[in-house]
Amino acid sequence: MRSGTKSIVILGGGTAGWIAANLIATHWGGRGMDITLVESPDIGIIGVGEGSTPPLKGFMEVIGAKESDWMSRCDATYKVGITFRDWSTKPGFDEYFHPFLSQPDEFSVPAFFHNSYLRRNGVDLDGHPSQFFLAWELARKRLAPVAPPNFPFEMNYGYHFNSGLLGQFLQDWAAAKGVKYRQATVTEAVLDSQGFIDYLKTDAEENIKADFYVDSTGFRSQLLQQALAVPFDSCADVLFNDSAVVFPTDPDENPQPQTISTALKYGWAWKIPLTSRFGNGYVYSSKYVDDDAAEKELREHLGLLDSDIAARKLKFRVGRVREHWFKNCLAVGLSQGFIEPLEATALDMVQETVVRFIEAANKGDLTDRFRDEFNTRISKRFDAVRDYIVCHYRINTRSDTDYWRDNGSNEKISRSLREILTAWLAGKNITDELERQSLDAYFPSLSWNCLLAGKGIYPTKDQVRPGNELANKYDLKKNARYLQGCALNFRSHREQLDALRART
Ligand SMILES: Cc1cc2nc3c(=O)[nH]c(=O)nc-3n(C[C@H](O)[C@H](O)[C@H](O)COP(=O)(O)OP(=O)(O)OC[C@H]3O[C@@H](n4cnc5c(N)ncnc54)[C@H](O)[C@@H]3O)c2cc1C
Fold it and tell me: Ligand 1 centre and the CA of 346: distance in Å?
């Protein structure tokens, strides 16, 4: 970024482009910054990406959008976590829940850490994670995570939504903040003598010129990777999936506020509840199964072999660019990279990228003074997410296909992940290990504990000894009663969604 930056062009109107437009307009719109989003009328958006993590709630708050402004418009539902099914063959661990942690969990989570730690160290205690979280109670009872005013704890949650409708909502919201919109397909980015983007040639007569450019052109990465030739580092050697087949099914009247991820033969299938439908998709590796066989397997999994509803197929690549902000261009969304969708982290990465960019630019008075620090920070976050996701595959215990066997024996995992796994298997406190590696900022220790405990990476029943009084210090029945009592405060997911619709 050069001093005197007064105009920004955001190229691409997928969710990433519109999140960027709203954040930039919220922070700089009133400061004389001219912001235009340019989108091709001929190149569609990717049209998947329907689950979020809790930071999306914060994003909506920052841009001033209330749930009643956007949720009904986007067929949105609440999300309190993800159930992982059939990833592990260990008895009792065929399924577990990865929660979004809320304040009431502060009273129940110590029991999980205690039991899980001692179980790893050979004591016969129940360390299965799901039972320790309010989110699990809400998910299985189909309750919305919105607390009544007299509930004295803060709740944390994410959402599911129709990505196309979310884009349209964000477009209208950005327009109200003064973001201009143009339709054109950019055919070339012309560089100046110093290698900065000078202007964009389009398929119409007019060129487009700005001081700074945001590349949100999806996997094309028209500006950062194509025009500016910033290298892309693939992580396909540790994340094998490169394809997806997507298929809608009828909605539930009162959906569970959670995503379900079920391991299939060559990958995993998501099930995401929206008010208008379930979004289903099978993410798989084309090296192990062809597209038609994958589609058949998904249809079988959904019990819809005879359905004539068409499935959509897509390809993707995993990895990240080496620099997210280069010269006068910032890449946001799929144009900067993608780790696969297992934990629905992509939009969070978009948000983080834009927020940190604004922070760095503000600190450096709209120059590129803090650019390197910014790039290192975002890349580190990508890599931390990658390792957490890789871990799901590396510790799977399925042996039914080459796909799962190859994943389970993959020695190309990063040193960082190897050290976390070594610490876990040695019965150490992995919170210390995550802190040592400064990795606790993204997936916190609790998430790592849920992942490793949830897949049953514990000594087997015949390797453990009975616990004494000290080991058995937490009464799990009491814990369950506490969480059940908390859950009594929440109304059904359906009622909450209807109440929102009535306020829209
Ligand atoms: C299978 C799958 C599942 C996913 N699930 C999740 C999930 O659950 N949660 C999550 O957070 N994320 C998920 N993602 C990621 C998510 O879909 C994306 O991060 C999100 O949709 C943002 O995409 P985007 O805006 O970067 O790109 P796109 O949606 O592809 O938008 C690209 C835009 O650029 C424009 N464009 C491209 N080239 C040009 C040009 N030359 N001139 C003008 N305009 C141009 C297009 O018109 C379009 O508007 C998933 C991704 C995949 C592949």
Answer: 10
Q: What is the pLDDT of residue 442?
A: 80
Q: Kindly report the CA angle at 393 between 390 and 395, in degrees rounded to 5?
A: 105
Best probe residue, ligand 1, of 10, 37, 48 (max atoms within 8 Å of C-beta) = 48
Same domain, 227 and 346: yes
CATH number at residue 306: 3.30.9.100
**Residue 380 alpha carbon to ligand 1 centre in Å:** 22
Q: Which of 15, 295, 317 to mutate to test the pocket of ligand 1 (most atoms within 8 A of CB)?
A: 15
- 282 and 304 both lie in a single domain: yes
With a cut of 70, list the residues of the chain below it in pLDDT.
none
Same domain, 34 and 171: yes
Q: Is 216 in the same domain as 191?
A: yes
What is the pLDDT at residue 441? 77
Residue 60 domain flag: no
Q: Answer whether 54's CB lies under 8 Å from 157's CB.
A: yes
Is 265 a catalytic site residue?
no
Whether this prediction's pTM lies above 0.85 is answered by yes
DSSP 273: E
Please work out whether the CB of residue 208 comes within 6 Å of at least one atom of ligand 1: no
DSSP code string of 35-98: EEEEE-SSS-------B--THHHHHHHHHT--HHHHTGGGT-EEE-EEEEESS--STT-SEEEE
Tokens describing residue 349? 């990465």
**Nearest C-alpha to atom 53 of ligand 1 is from which residue?**
316
Token pair for 150 = 């007299």
402-422 pLDDT, tens digit each:
999 999 999 999 999 999 999
The total domain count for the chain is 3
Residue 63 corresponds to which tokens in the numbers above? 């841009």
pLDDT at site 3 = 74
- Interval 73-120: pLDDT, tens: 999 999 999 999 999 999 999 999 999 999 999 999 999 999 999 999
CA of residue 220 to ligand 1 center, whole Å: 10
> Which of 315, 343, 369 delimits the end of a domain?
315
The CB of 216 under 6 Å from ligand 1? The reply is: yes
Domain with 274, as residue range(s), is 243-315
- Domain match, 258 and 306 both: yes
Kindly give the number of the ligand 1 atom that is closest to the alpha carbon of 333.
Answer: 26
Q: Please tell me the predicted confidence (pLDDT) of residue 141.
A: 98
65 ligand 1 Cβ < 6 A: no
Q: Are residues 226 and 168 in the same domain?
A: yes
- Asked if 392 and 96 touch (Cβ cutoff 8 Å), the reply is no
Pocket test of ligand 1: the residue of 202, 217, 270, 283 to mutate, having most ligand atoms within 8 Å of its CB, is 217
In a domain, 287, yes or no: yes
